[in-house]
Design a protein that fits this description.
CATH architecture of the largest domain: Alpha-Beta Complex
Number of domains: 2
Largest sheet: 8 strands, mixed
Helix content: 25-40%
Radius of gyration: 28 Å
């Protein structure tokens, strides 16, 4: 039975990325970039071993990014990518797999089908296989003054991706023999060692993150629009006013609840948690927990927004309808919208507040309490 190992190379500093955090540890759809790549290989049925090559300064970041995944202990890379790959291959020597797949840690969107294509080519005897995609744009040469100096024919020109797959012993020997040279990828190492590398079908979405713009574009591509609904009811008791959307409204009653009984913020919180499939307010803040006794409900909405933002998501719109006979909200509606927007840290244009009655019917019609329903529309990771 043939064995296949994956070598995920992530020892670079990413100087073009523009932040102190290396790009492979930047957030993408709620998790570090490198974790997406590690999961693709650790979850593939034909990959028996996943080895990462990292920078010594990133050991803690890698440990957090790889939490819960079945991986080999990482090895530290060298000054160049070529050196890092050689060190990773040497770490795999004791395992001595038949095939090795070398993948960029900053290429998070690799699909199982691409991995399948590379392994299939190796299985029929190819020394190496590289996924490729065609060049669709016109190619130009540009001079020092930004003027076009020539047009470059696209015939037989393609873009190479990773994972690039090879017969393990052949790639290891080629790297050791050509150590110290400045070759851009592993297929170039094999070509310089005299091997013929074949190509397989790549995937346009399997792009490499180079700068912050790449990350923004990929984050957008991995997001989807979701909706969630929330509904809450609180009954009236004695008191001197109610709090709705974080705004205190004087009246001759108060809403009864474990917290401040802000029925509007409770419904809004459940709507956002619902859009994330993340339980409800009672799971995260159980009424039996005295820590939340008389707590301001802004705490709950802020919590839901933190859960959303931790996934790199965003609140697109929140629409709430308050159902009651009293108090009348027409004079405080804009104040409530502004309050909710401030708590959620979104523009007020993303918040809608409406009020209605039940024409004297039911418990709200009898003035026994207030109900509120909310619908949240969010952008969240499609993989979440």
């Amino acid at each position: 039975m043939t064995t296949c190992a994956a070598l995920v190379v992530a020892a670079g500093r990413g100087t073009r990325f523009g932040t102190s955090t290396p790009k492979q540890y930047a957030g993408l759809a709620g998790m570090p970039v490198i974790r997406h790549a590690l999961m693709a290989f650790s979850g593939h049925p034909d990959v028996s071993h996943v080895q990462a090559v990292i920078h010594p300064d990133d050991h803690q970041k890698f440990t957090e990014a790889a939490s819960g995944l079945a991986l080999a202990a990482p090895v530290f890379g060298g000054e160049t990518r070529q050196q890092s790959v050689r060190l990773g291959l040497e770490a795999l020597s004791d395992i001595n797999p038949d095939f090795v797949l070398v993948h960029d840690g900053a290429r998070p969107n690799v699909k199982a089908e691409t991995i399948d294509h590379v392994i299939a080519a190796l299985s029929i005897g190819a020394p190496g296989a590289v996924p490729i995609v065609p060049i669709r744009d016109s190619l130009k040469k540009v001079g020092d003054g930004s003027q076009i100096t020539d047009s470059v024919p696209r015939d037989n020109i393609v873009r190479a991706q990773t994972p690039q797959g090879f017969q393990f012993q052949a790639l290891l020997a080629a790297h050791q023999r050509l150590d110290g040279q400045s070759l851009t990828d592993d297929s170039a190492v094999m070509e310089n060692a005299g091997f013929i590398v074949t190509t397989v079908e790549g995937d346009e979405s399997n792009t490499k993150i180079t700068d912050a713009a790449d990350l923004r574009i990929m984050n957008d591509s991995l997001m989807e629009t979701r909706t969630g609904s929330g509904f809450d009811v609180h009954r009236f008791g004695s008191g001197d006013g109610v709090t709705l959307g974080g705004v205190f409204i004087p009246m001759d009653k108060a809403l009864i609840g474990h917290s401040d009984a802000d029925v509007l913020l409770h419904a809004a919180t459940d709507a956002i948690l619902g859009a994330l499939g993340d339980g409800d307010i009672g799971i995260h803040f159980p009424p039996t927990d005295q820590a939340f006794k008389d707590a301001g409900s802004s705490l709950f909405l802020k919590f839901a927004m933190e859960r959303l933002r931790a996934l790199m998501g965003a609140l697109i719109h929140l629409d709430v309808t308050v159902i009651c006979e009293q108090p009348k909200l027409s004079t405080v509606r804009d104040q409530i919208r502004t309050s909710i927007a401030s708590i959620a840290d979104v523009p007020v244009s993303r918040i809608s507040v409406k009020a209605t009655t039940t024409e004297g019917l039911g418990f709200t019609g009898r003035g026994e309490g207030i109900a509120c329903q909310a619908i949240a529309t969010v952008r969240a990771p499609a993989r979440h």
